[in-house]
Specification:
By secondary structure, the protein is α/β, with parallel strands linked by helices. It has seven helices and eleven strands. The strands form two sheets. Strands 1, 2, 3, 4, 5 and 11 form a six-stranded mixed beta sheet that branches. A five-stranded mixed beta sheet has the order 8-7-9-6-10. The radius of gyration is 16 Å and the shape is elongated. The two termini are about 20 Å apart.
Length: about 190
């Protein structure tokens, strides 16, 4: 079976990767995931032909429109294939042996911050909030030392497994269910 190249926004462990794998399963294709970091990267990969399919989030039931997705879509030509609705479970993770009281910063994508606003205000009212281009990239950057040890990251639970981080808390999103719509796109002339 030929592999279908699927570009996703985010690093390994991102919700977009999960949506891309779900799409591949539904379509009965074997995926080759291309990690394009952001929506712009996904659309460039699709437009150039590097990827056959692109997957990225466009709206969340709590966080609203994903602004960066619409900015990227305004710059590229593509064909809409379908959409995927997925329940998103946000988790708080830290480097091993980091305690809740050690956390001074919370780093993640702005969408994750908006989805976990009440939790953050309740549990970490003094924490500095730092926007990052992707939830899973924030986890990878914490694990590799790009982010300081006093940083917690909001990302999918799978990111904690991949990057050897400890989960401090699971299901921290304010809304239950916390639904995100991902779009599946292809090249305009395909």
């Amino acid at each position: 079976m030929n592999k279908t190249k699927i570009a996703v926004s985010g690093e390994a462990g991102s919700f977009s990767e999960e949506a891309g794998l779900l799409y591949a399963q539904r379509e009965g294709v074997e995926p080759e995931i291309i990690f394009a970091v952001d929506m712009e990267g996904v659309l460039v990969s699709v437009e150039s032909g590097e990827a056959e399919i692109g997957v990225f989030p466009v709206v969340n039931s709590r966080g609203g429109l994903v602004q960066t997705a619409f900015e990227a879509m305004g710059k590229h030509l593509f064909k809409m294939q379908t959409e995927i609705w997925m329940e998103v479970h946000q988790c708080l993770m830290v480097l091993p042996n980091t305690k809740k009281e050690d956390v001074k910063k919370i780093t993640t994508h702005p969408q994750a911050i908006s989805q976990c606003e009440r939790y953050i205000k309740r549990e970490f009212p003094q924490a500095e909030l730092v926007d990052w281009e992707d939830t899973a990239k924030a986890a990878a950057d914490l694990a590799s030392g790009v982010l300081s040890k006093d940083t917690a990251v909001i990302a999918p639970a799978r990111s904690a497994q991949i990057y050897n981080l400890e989960l401090l808390d699971k299901g921290i999103q304010d809304n239950h269910p916390n639904l995100t719509t991902f779009v599946v796109v292809s090249r305009l002339n395909s």
